[in-house]
Design goal:
Elements: E1 8-16, E2 20-27, H1 31-34, H2 39-64
Antiparallel strand pairs: 1-2
Length: about 60
């Protein structure tokens, strides 16, 4: 049970059309207030992180084989 806490969640649909349906990010509390970032900036960063992860997994997968 969560009491008195709220979380901001960013969901990126289809970060990679072949492997993932969606990527879910839980945004640090206070990011909107303290860092002064807009929702658009946070979405851009989340999309970049999802794409970076997919690229890294593809590279590591190739290295393992």
């Amino acid at each position: 049970m969560i009491k008195g806490n709220s979380r901001h969640v960013v969901v990126i649909k289809n970060p990679d059309n072949r492997n993932f349906e969606e990527a879910i990010f839980i945004v640090r509390s206070g990011l909107f207030r303290n860092a002064g970032k807009s929702e658009e900036e946070i979405m851009r960063e989340a999309k970049a992180a999802a794409k970076s992860f997919v690229r890294r997994m593809k590279t590591e997968d190739l290295m393992v084989k």
